Amino acid sequence: MQTHTADYLIIGGGIIGLTIARKLKARNPKAHIILLEKEPQVARHSSGRNSGVMHAGFYYPADSLKAKFCRDGSRAMREYCAKHKLPINLSRKLVVARNEDELPGLLELKRRGDLNGVNVQLVDAQEAHAIEPHARTYEQALYSPDTATVDPVAIALHMRTALESEGVRILTGKPYLKRLDGNVIEAGGERFEAGVLVNCAGLYADRVARDFGFCQDYAILPFKGIYLKHTGVHPPLKVNIYPVPNLNNPFLGVHFTITVDGQVKIGPTAIPAFWRQHYHGLDHFSAREMAEILRWQAELFLTNAFGFRRLAFEEMRKYRRAHLVNLAMGLVQGVDAAHFNQWSTPGIRAQLLNTRTRQLVQDFVVEGDARSVHVLNAVSPAFTCSIPFADWVVEQWVP
Asked: Considering only CA atoms, which of 107, 104, 99, 108 is closest in space to residue 139?
C-alpha cells in the first residue's frame, strides 16, 4: 500500500474536522495537513443534515463548554457568512410556554442566558404576538433576537475550497479501516502516518478512539432526526418557535424552524436508531452495529435510565405525521397543519452514552495524548459552536 505522511492527520470531513484543519493551518501555515473523509464530499452526515439554526447560547449551564462555545460560535459563524457572502437568515427565536407548569423552565433559560452574556428577553403574550403573530404562549415567552439560520452545506463546501487553496489535502472516499501501528492507519486501501492524529469521525468517533486506547467509558448511541416541511405557497411563520425543553436530556423538543431560504419545517424527532447510519430502510445496515446498539437500548429500556423507556415510546409515535404535527400545533395559532406533509432528509445524532452511569452525555467530550486527539461528543449545537470549539481543541489538546 502507498503510504502518505502528514504533520496532522484529521479523520472526518464534517464541520468539526474542517474547522480544526482551519485552525491548525492558521497556527502553523507550513504544516502538512491531510483530512480524510469516507464519503465523496464533505458534510454528508450530521454537518450537512442539521437544521442550520445558529443557536444563541441560552440552553446550557453557564459553566459548560456548550454555553461558552455556542455564544461565541454563533457570532463567529454569522461573521464568517457575512465576510464570504454566504446565505444567512436572521430569523430570531421565541421559546413559548404551553402552560403554567412550564414557566419555571422559561425563567431558568433566561437565567442561563443572562449568566452566559446572551441577549435574551422575557416578553409577555402580547409582545410575543407582535414578534410572531402566529405564536401561542401562556403569559410569557423568551425572545432571542440573535438566533439565525444558515446553509450548513454551503459553509462546509466554502471551507473545503478555502482549505485546499491554502494547501490542506482533503481526500474523499477514504474511510478509516484500522490502526496499524503507532500513528499509522489504513484508510481507503492506503496507509497514512501522522505526527498527530485528530479523530473527528462523528458517528464512528468512539470506534476510532478505542483503537488508540481511548473512549473506555463511552459508546455512541444514535438517534434519528426527521423534519416535516411546509409545502404551501406562503410560509406561515418568519420566526423560529420552540417549546420549553426538558433540561434533563439533550433534545429540544418538536419545534418550528425557519430555514435559510424562509421555508418552514417542524421537528425533529429523536427516534432511537438501530445502526449508526440508519437513515432509510436497510441502507447501510450493519448486523454488528445493530447487535451492539440493541444491547444498550435493551439495558436502558429495562433500567429506564434517564427515562429512556418513555422517551423511546414517545419518539416512535412521531413516525406518524399526524402525531408530530399535533405536537407542533400546540405552539402556534392560525397555522394550517395540512401543508406540513413532506418528510425531510433524515439526520443521525451521534449521541454519546456514558456506559458507567448509563446517562446521555450533555457536554462536549475530548480525550487524547501527545499523539492522538479524539472528539467524542460533538452533537448539537456543534455546528454553531464549531469555530471556537475547534480553536479550543487545537490550543488545549493538539501539540
From this structure: 99
